[in-house]
Amino acid sequence: MLHHAPRALYIHIPFCTNKCHYCDFNSYILKGQPVDDYLTALEREMERTLSATPAERIDTVFVGGGTPTVLTPPQMERFLASVRRLWPLHEGTEFTMEANPGTTDPDKLAVMFAGGVNRLSFGVQSFDNGLLQRIGRIHDVDDVYRSLDNARAAGFGNLSIDLMFGLPGQTVELLSDSVDKALALDLPHYSLYSLKVEENTLFHHLYEKNQLPLPTEDEDLEMYLHLIGRLQGAGYEHYEISNFAKPGFESRHNSTYWRNEPYYGLGAGAHGYLERHRHVNIKGVQPYIDAALERLPRLSGETVSEAEAMEDFMMVGLRLLDGVRGADFERQFPGRTIEGVFGAQLRPLVEGGLLLRLEDGEHGSLPGGTPLRPGRGYRLSPQGVLLGNEVFGAFIGVLDDAIHS
Question: What are residue 358's phi and psi, to 5 degrees?
């Protein structure tokens, strides 16, 4: 595999006003946390990381959490100044920050805009106040409108919201009403996620006790189909299993992950992928701070074998509805071809109608009209989109020891 310095940077701010009922992310309730010490530790980790793996050019930054927008304006200003001072950003860098409705007043948004943030992703989840309460969100629908108005007034045009489906007590009718309200905002990007009940969450505890009234699998599928139809009908390209965008507004940062490209990962519990080596940082706030002041604050790390990297390439790459290309595979894995490595997995998926084979010179487009990238390769069929996990699972752990050599 050819190595180059990552051009994507993920930074984790692990603080939240409260813990949502479904959340298993590395996040901690803000009250009483040593936020300023954390920002100091983060600067140290940035410096140590760049010393070990210098960056040539950063094309995308994504600040996630937690809720990064719980930082006060002075903390936010300090944090963004450290990012600009240390990393080689440029005029075209996509700089995304996750935000919670209700945590973005005009003063804070002004600091963010001045500090280089140019894309906001709001965790809205639903436009139904009853559902928002049921899943443990602290905002209401009025907060959503106010936060988006504030963001636009501050100069932000590249805005995204998350919506969730498959929630307890949710129906297609309730979802449809949320979609009406979401589309009326005319935003450039929407992310739509099905609820997954993760261990160590309140929802998992309720689920175990049979106290979580979830939609059936059929109802979940009906909601997903409803979302696809509504978003495509409104002119959005379904460019990734869970993501829809107007042309040119696809998440460039997340595409780094989907193309299996390297990225820096900083902050408590953050994951990074550098030179075919994955690492996870120490998760607790104070343990992270203590470690980062002394060294790179790693919890664990592992070298990814060529076999595993090739499997990852297929699993994450096929999440993009544009699919994977042989030329990209051969660039990442010189001397290998997709068919040579994965012929036994690809044939039944193509014959079963879950994957479409793309030929050189083929001029196709996605349902919204976006032209497909040129080159031979594979992408999900409409049926494959609905059975994505079956497709991705076909590439897990399938390569034998011969590939490792």
Answer: -105, 135
Token pair, residue 92, equals: 């075209």
**Confidence at 363, pLDDT banded by 50, 70, 90:** low
Chain position carrying tokens 């499997």: 311
From CA 369, how far away is CA 356, in angstroms rounded?
Answer: 17
pLDDT at 402: 44
Residue 179 corresponds to which amino acid?
Answer: V
Q: Per the structure block, which two tokens stand in for 211? A: 């106290």
Sorted by sequence, the CB contacts under 8 Å of residue 175 that are 6+ apart come out as 165, 223, 226, 227
For 344-356, the pLDDT digits (tens) are 999 999 999 999 9
> For the chain, what is the total number of helices (H) and then of strands (E)?
16, 17
Predicted TM-score of the model (pTM): 0.92
Interatomic CA distance for residues 256 and 253, integer angstroms: 5
- For 18-91, where are the alpha helices, taking DSSP H only? 35-52, 73-86
Query: What is the Cα–Cα distance from 10 to 278, expressed in whole angstroms?
Result: 14
3-state secondary structure of 99: strand
What Å distances lie between residue 280 and 266, 283, 311, 337, CA to CA? 9, 8, 20, 30
Q: With the CA atoms of 237, 242, 243 and 244 taken in that order, what torsion angle do they form, in degrees rounded to the nearest 10?
A: 40
Contact 268, 42 (CB under 8 A): no
Residue 34, amino acid? P
CA distance 20 to 13: 16
Rounded Cα gap, residues 204 and 225, in angstroms:
26
pLDDT at 1 over 90: no
Nearest to 265 by CA among 23, 8, 71: 8
Strands 15-16 and 28-29: parallel
DSSP state of 335: T
Query: How far, rounded to the nearest angstrom, does the alpha carbon of residue 148 sit from its chain's CA centroid?
Result: 20
Q: Which long-range contacts (CB under 8 A, 24 or more apart) does 32-39 make?
A: 33/285, 34/285, 34/286, 34/289, 35/71, 35/75, 36/75, 37/289, 38/14, 38/268, 38/285, 38/288, 38/289, 39/75, 39/78, 39/79, 39/82
Confidence of residue 204 (pLDDT cuts 50, 70, 90): low
Q: Which tokens is 353 given?
A: 């109608």
Give the pair of three-digit tokens for residue 44. Answer: 């140290």
